[in-house]
Amino acid sequence: MTPSPDSDSSPKKTTPDQTTPDQRRESLVQGRCTACEGGTEALPGEQARQYLEVLPKWELEESSGSISRQINGGSFVKVIDLVNRIADLAEEEQHHPDLHVTGYRHLKIVLTTHAIGGLSENDFIVAAKIDDMLG
Prior knowledge:
single chain, 135 residues, alpha+beta, 4 helices, 4 strands, disordered N terminus
């Protein structure tokens, strides 16, 4: 029997813990943000880069301890609708990004964990949920 063109008989690439990138991304989407208190360490750059392997639309800004994504929303009204949808998600997760609307149709989303002065898993959970929301 000949495999269909859509089937992929090659094994999925896995990480040392034997999870595929799709599984790691889905784990972030299904995750819940937890409160970060003083004394919690910010993620080191290497760990942040590992998270970004499954969030390719986001960029690491090591100097500011943040990740960001830029979106061209097409129009002012569409960008504001997106800001409101992200705000609802942020309230649900109790983890709030900085949202910058420029040029009336461009949105820059910046995530960092202010309480620890750097990145936490919460930033990557919200980034994955934003990506999931945008489709």
